Structures are given as C-alpha cells and as structure tokens.
C-alpha cells in the first residue's frame, strides 16, 4: 500500500527494524567514546595523541600550500555569494589541482591524502567559500569515491575512481520529497531486468546533483526469484537517458550550492554498477558516513578559527565608554568562549581524523560526536560573533564595503553554518543514532527482556545474562582513578594550568553518566526509546566529556612538541571549565525538566486547543502542498543539469 506520493507506508516498528538492520552490529575494535558511555575512561586509547607518518605530513603540507595559493588568488567568495554560483573556472582549477581526488588512492590518479590533511584542506577551502567546501566534501565524503573505496569491486574502482580523481563530480542521492531520516519509506525503485536494473523515482536535495557526472543512488529492489531485494546502492551516470535535474534549489545559506531535484524515469543501470549486494544500501550509506561525517566538523573548525580572528581584531579597535569592547566583561566572556571552543573543535577533529587514519579504533561514535558537537558549537560561535559585531554583524559584507568599511561576512557565516545542524543527520537524529550505540551493550544483554515479541523462555535467558553482566559492571561504576588526587599527574607539568583535575572529572563523570543510563533503562525499559529528550542530554554530556578529553590530550601533545604548549594548556583549561558548567546543567535536566508537560502541550497544539493564540497575524506563505508530488513518471520539466566540462 502506498500513500499519495507512492511512498510505502510502514509502521513505527517496521521503520525501526529497517534502521536496526542497517546498523553495523559488531564491535571488532576498541572505541574510546563507546567506553566513555559505559563508564570506562580509556585514556590509553587516545593518549599519547596519535601522529601521522612523516611522509603523509610532507605530502599533505605540499598540497595545502598549493591549495592556499589557489584559494587566495582564484576563489572569490564574495562573488560566489552574490551570483549564487561557483564559476566554472574555479571548478576547473580545482580539478587541475587534483582537489577532486584528495582522498582517492594514488594508484587511481588521486592524491592519497590522509583524513587529517583532507580535513585541513576542507577547513581552508571552506573559510574562503563554504559552498566550494561543500562541493568538494559532498563529492568525496559521501559521493561515489568513498563507498567504492569501502565496498566497490576492483573493476568498479578501475572504471570510476580515475574519473572521479580528476574530471568527474559525484553526488549522493538518498533523500526523497517524503522521505528524510526514515529510509524504510524509500519510494525510488530499481526493478531487475536481465543484466540491468530499471530506476524510477524522485530524489530531493541532491548536493552536487546539478553539476554531477556520477551519482550514488539508493533505490528499493523488489523481492523476486533470484533477487533478495531491499534498499540497494547503484552508481548511475548522470547523463543517462531518463535522468532529469528538475530544479536547482536555493537556500538560506550556501548560495553557491549545486543542489537539486533529480527524477529517474526508466533509467537503465547495468547490474555491474550495483555497489555491494542487494539490500546492503543502507549499511553502505551508514558505513560511508562513519568517516564521511568528519568533513562537516572540519569546516566548522575552520569557521571557529575565523570567528576568533574577527572577534580579536574587531574587539581590539572598537571602543565604547573609553575602552576597547573586548575589555568589557560582557563582550570578553564571548571572546573567551569562541577562543576556547575553537581550540576544542580542532582538538576533536584532529584526534578523530588521526584515529580514522590509523584504523586501530572503531570511530563511528567519535565521528558522530564530532559532527554533532561541531555543528552545534560552530553555530553558537558565529552567533556570538554577530553579537560582538553588533549592527555590523547583521549587515552584509557588500553593504559594509559600499559605505567604506571592511567587508566582514559575519551574517553570511551564520546563514551558511545553519545547515550543518541538519546536513548528514540532523542534531535530533544524531542524538538518537549515538544514543543507540551508547546503550548497545545494555540492549545486547537485556534487549530481549523489553522486547514484547520475545517468548518467556527468551526473557528468562536474557534475565540470566543481564544479571551476570550487571553483577560485574555495576560495582565498577562506584570508584575509579578520578577519585585519586594524583591521577593523570603528567597533565599538570610545572608552570602550566592543571589539566589533570579535568581528566579526573571526566573519569568520575563517565561513571556517573553510565549509572544514569542504567537507572533510566531500569525505570523506563521498553519505553526508553521514546525518551528522546533524555537520550539527547545523555549524548550531549558524552559529547562534552569527549571534547574535554580531546582538548587535554591535544594540549599535552603541543606541549611535548614545544608548539604553543603553555597557551594550549590555558585554552584547554578554560574550555574544560566552561564545559563542566554545561555538563552539570545537563545532569540537572536529566531528572528535573518539563518533558512530560511538553508532551501534553504538543498534544494540545496538534488538537487545535491553542489556535486562538495564532490570531492577529497574516501567513505570508504561498500556495501549494506541504510535500511536492513525487509520482514516478516522465519529467515535464526542463533539465537544468549542467556538467562542468
């Protein structure tokens, strides 16, 4: 049965089952963040801070130097903002530079950069034009290269990666007009026909889709004889007959983003272009995002650095009441927040990226936390920068320049950063995704106890397993190194702020967090998954603890390398003190909140009880349905696809 947009109707339980089946179920490698949520502070997994090999550093720095020159001389961010388009010459220049192949192995013509240097490159490009950064990121982090690297056949890699490294732009197509973060309702189909599949459907918000040459498309294969079916990933030539880019979307920010609506009508795709087996599409997408998500916090970290620079320069020259505004405490606290948080975001990014390069640890939670924390904190930093700049922060760069002042695009940054809290998993979805991984150990031993479909025998077996697990686990949450005054003493070198105290706090708080999670599971059991506000706070606490840990480890790395060590310790100390205040507030809100009352208000809002409150205004919205019709069929729109050749 389908809805008005031919979207499959599925129950809440069916949707959860699809999402659960796509999860990477096993943990074959250690994870610092997973252990953190379980009350085990495994500092040994991240300290000493891992470092890249010298040859990777040399190759990365050489490319960054070329990229910096290109950004300074060839990319006009203000022009891209005004014209809402990246000039073809800029994209051609990036191709010649090899920027399309930063993460592609050298054997296929790519640069073979590490995740660390790929992220540094994105931060650099994103600082001059977030739209260009988004183009490069969507191409390599979630577009065709990454899933092929992880799941492609040798033949697919040979056929596509050389093109993607130098000439062809790629895009990732999952979202549909009526399908966002609930892939169980995916409506695009891929029907087997001999040695081919026939694709039909509509994809929305296809970043790079307007200019792409190659697409990764997620489509549902019907189950039939010889075909297990399920959501499946395909590489599709964008120039194929039946592929139409029906609209180039425009947004609040990222005005140069080549994002569109793409329709597939009887598009024939060779079976050899299928990535992985049928039914593996969502697992491929999620696995791709494990490291792909690090590109977004890379640009957030770059934005934080720019916020700090502008705040420093402006606040030193702008005077009010006889002194620079930076000397007024109300502004100074904002500058301190920006400086400390910029340090923390880079610490999280570099640590997570280096862990990804080494491949010693499972970083699926670390990458998700980096995305969540980076997008939220970068937005706050940009908002504070606008406030520090006052009316000039709200004024456009072009307007500032027109009246003779420095063209500082603070308001543009705020608009550009806003999407990061939605892109590649909204904050709300990231909370749920991370929370699911955080409670995985509990569900592994006690999940059958709260599953209504399990038999009494299954529940009895699960009860025995849970009893044995918690008998070992719970006593370990009572005491730990965080209670020893001398623990982590190497993080308190002479003449430096005391970071050891913060690591002791992280250790103690990690155990407290695990106890809170256990109490919640004991209290709500099967209803735990409905307590999304509670789970969001649990995840936010874990994110702060991860950020504190990364900041301390980075400060110690810089100290031992003789690279701004004392200053790094100062920033890490300030960040940890600010973070601890946020953590304590979050703990207070775990049990003292308005969640139950909020649910009642929501019920009343949806029932129309408060419509009287909406009186006295005029709705400026235009006509049209809330969700566009996505009925399969031939396109009736002009094809606005414009590949860059």
The separation of the N and C termini measures 43 Å
The SS-based structural class is: alpha+beta
The quaternary state of the protein chains shown equals single chain
The CATH C-level name of one domain is Mainly Alpha
CATH homologous superfamily placement of one domain: Butyryl-CoA Dehydrogenase, subunit A, domain 3
Which architecture of one domain per CATH?
Up-down Bundle
- Beta-strand percent range: 5-15%
Fraction of residues in helices? 40-55%
Mean pLDDT: 92
| Low-confidence blocks of residues | 1-5
- Tell me about the largest β-sheet: 4 strands, mixed
* Number of DSSP strand runs: 10
Determine the CATH topology of one domain: Butyryl-CoA Dehydrogenase, subunit A, domain 3
Order of adjacent strands in the largest pleated sheet: 1-4-5-8
């Amino acid at each position: 049965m389908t809805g008005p947009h031919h979207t499959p109707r599925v129950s809440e339980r069916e949707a959860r089952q699809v999402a659960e089946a796509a999860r990477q179920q096993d943990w074959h490698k250690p994870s610092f963040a997973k252990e953190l949520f379980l009350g085990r502070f495994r500092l040994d997994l991240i300290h000493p801070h891992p470092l890249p090999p010298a040859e990777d550093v040399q190759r990365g720095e050489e490319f960054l130097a070329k990229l910096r020159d290109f950004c300074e001389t060839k990319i006009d961010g203000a022009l891209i903002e005004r014209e809402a388009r990246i000039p073809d010459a800029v994209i051609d220049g990036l191709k010649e530079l090899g920027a399309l192949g930063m993460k592609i192995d050298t054997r296929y013509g790519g640069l073979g950069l590490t995740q660390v240097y790929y992220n540094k490159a994105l931060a650099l490009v994103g600082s001059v034009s977030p739209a260009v950064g988004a183009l490069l990121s969507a191409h390599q982090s979630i577009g065709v290269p990454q899933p092929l690297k992880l799941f492609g056949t040798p033949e697919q890699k040979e056929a596509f990666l050389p093109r993607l490294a130098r000439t062809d732009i790629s895009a990732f197509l999952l979202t549909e007009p009526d399908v966002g973060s609930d892939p169980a309702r995916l409506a695009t189909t891929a029907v087997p026909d001999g040695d081919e599949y026939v694709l039909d459907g509509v994809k929305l918000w296809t970043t790079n889709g307007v200019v792409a040459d190659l697409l990764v498309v997620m489509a549902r294969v019907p189950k039939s004889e010889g075909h297990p079916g399920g959501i499946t990933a395909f590489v599709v030539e964008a120039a194929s007959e039946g592929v139409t880019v029906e609209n180039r979307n425009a947004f609040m920010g990222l005005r140069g983003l080549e994002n569109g609506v793409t329709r597939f009508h009887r598009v024939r795709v060779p079976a050899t272009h299928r990535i992985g087996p049928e039914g593996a599409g969502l697992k491929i997408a999620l696995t791709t995002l494990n490291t792909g998500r690090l590109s977004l916090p890379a640009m957030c970290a770059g934005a934080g650095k720019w916020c700090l620079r502008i705040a420093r320069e402006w606040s030193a020259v702008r005077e009010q009441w006889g002194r620079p505004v930076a000397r007024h405490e109300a502004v100074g606290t904002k500058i301190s927040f920006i400086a400390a948080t910029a340090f923390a975001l880079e610490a999280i990014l570099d640590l997570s990226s280096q862990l990804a390069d080494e491949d010693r640890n499972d970083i699926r939670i670390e990458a998700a936390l980096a995305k969540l924390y980076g997008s939220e904190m970068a937005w706050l930093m940009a908002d504070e920068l606008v406030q520090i700049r006052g009316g000039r922060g709200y004024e456009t760069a072009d307007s500032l320049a027109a009246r003779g002042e420095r063209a500082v695009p603070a308001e543009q940054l705020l608009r550009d950063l806003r999407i990061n809290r939605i892109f590649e998993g909204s904050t709300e979805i990231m909370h749920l995704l991370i929370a699911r991984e955080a409670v995985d150990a509990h569900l592994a031993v006690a999940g059958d106890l709260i599953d209504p479909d399990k038999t009494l025998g299954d529940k009895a077996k699960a009860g025995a397993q849970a009893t044995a697990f918690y008998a070992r686990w719970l006593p370990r949450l009572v005491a730990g190194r965080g209670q020893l005054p001398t623990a982590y003493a190497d993080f308190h070198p002479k003449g430096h702020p005391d970071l050891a105290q913060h690591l002791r706090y992280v250790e103690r708080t990690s155990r407290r967090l695990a106890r809170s999670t256990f109490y919640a599971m004991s209290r709500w059991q099967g209803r735990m998954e409905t307590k999304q506000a509670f789970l969001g706070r649990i995840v936010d606490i874990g994110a702060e603890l991860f950020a504190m840990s990364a900041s301390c480890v980075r400060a110690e790395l810089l100290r031992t390398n003789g690279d701004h060590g004392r200053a790094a310790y100062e920033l890490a100390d300030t960040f940890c003190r600010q973070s601890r205040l946020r953590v304590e507030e979050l703990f207070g809100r775990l049990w003292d909140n308005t969640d139950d009352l909020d649910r009642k208000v929501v019920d009343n809002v949806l029932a129309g009880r408060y419509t009287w409150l909406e009186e006295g205004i005029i709705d400026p919205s235009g006509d049209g349905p809330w969700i566009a019709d996505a009925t399969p069929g031939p396109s009736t729109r002009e094809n606005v696809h414009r590949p860059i050749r």
